[in-house]
Structures are given as C-alpha cells and as structure tokens.
Amino acid sequence: MTIRVLLADDQALLRSAFRVLVDSEPDMEVVGEAWDGAEAVRLAKERRADVVLMDIRMPGTDGLAATRLISGDPALAQVRVVILTTFEVDDYVVQSLRAGASGFLGKGSEPEELLSAIRVAAGGEALLSPAATKGLIARFLAQGDGADDGRDPARAERLDALTVREREVLVQVAGGHSNDEIAERLEVSPLTVKTHVNRAMAKLGARDRAQLVVIAYESGLVRPRVD
C-alpha cells in the first residue's frame, strides 16, 4: 500500500526538498502541498492523506490549530500528523501532541529518520524516537500549567476504567517501549500487549500511542523525569 503524504510548510524550498525525498520511495507519494494550516486541513480531506508533515509556525492558521482541526474531525480519523520543528525544545510540540499529533521531528533530522517517521506514523505507532520526545513531554508536563504540577484530575479519573494489566501496559508505552519489548518485560505475547493497548486507547479516547504517553503523564500515572 502506498502511503499518501501531505506537506504543510510555508517555505516552498523545504516543501520541494521533502517532495523529492518522499517521492523517491516506492511505498509513498506526495499527494499535495499546503502553505498554511487551513490549506493543510482542506487538502487532507480532498487528497485522502495518510500522513501530514506539519510545520508549526505558518501564517494564518498555524500547525497547532491545524492539528487540532484534523484530530477533531471524525472524517479524518485515519490521518496522522507528524510535527516538523526547527527547535529542539518547543512548548508547541507538547501542545501538538496533546492536540492529536503522532509525534515530531526536528527539521535537521536525517532523511532516513524522516522516511522512517512517515512509515511509523502511517502504521499507527507513536513517533517517540529519538528519546528526546519523551524528555520534552516530561519536561513540560513537569512544569505544568501552574496547578498540581501539570496533572489533570479528569485524566486521572479516567484511568479508573483501566484494568491493572492495562495500567501496566500503559506505563510501558509511556516509556517508549514497543509491543515486543513490553511483551518480553511482562512475559506475555505481543498480540496480548496489542489488545491491551487498543483497549486502553478506546477507554481513554486516545488516537494513538503518542496520545497514551501524554495521558500517562497528565494523569500522574507516570512521574516526569528530567535527566
């Protein structure tokens, strides 16, 4: 299956470079280019995109607002957003993850990292590599919004719907571990882990594993660590 990629960036030169890279792969193609967030949302619908490479800072509707619009539209439930940012530490990155993005990459990433990110996101996995992603989430949630060190009581209450095993799996997901790694740690099959992950996402209203990570931190289930 060919992965349909939409490019959203206000710099035409960058879009051209990304297009050449993506179109060079046999399993993916660029189906559109957007110069702002509003155009990205429109094209995501029209071109049936699987993955949107989304810049954060764009004129008009920015990448954060566009991500919220995409993640909040049932018609775009299968669209995955990967945030592209120039900055290694950016509060908008965490806001984007909360808004529904599957992860983020720095614009200085190697071509192989970008292509891998597209495949990971298209497969429904969380783009939590490099490990800096988890560090960013932990750092900003540790700072919080000025109340209760960033924990969301509503999120914590929703965890009551999880079984003990689903909580254990959620902790492992928040650590950035794959299903195979979690299976080995908990001494169960990868299929069992996948079932628990899917059930946790359904109960918590998470689009993907990246959202589970954010929920784990916001609820206080996993305590932020800043090394």
TrEMBL record:
Coiled coil location: none
Keyword terms: DNA-binding, Phosphoprotein, Transcription, Transcription regulation
Ranges of residues in domain HTH luxR-type: 155-220
CDD domains to which the protein is assigned, alphabetical: LuxR_C_like, REC_NarL-like
Pfam families per the UniProt record, alphabetical: GerE, Response_reg
UniProt modified residues of type 4-aspartylphosphate: D55
Start and end residues of each Response regulatory domain: 4-122
Protein name: Response regulator transcription factor
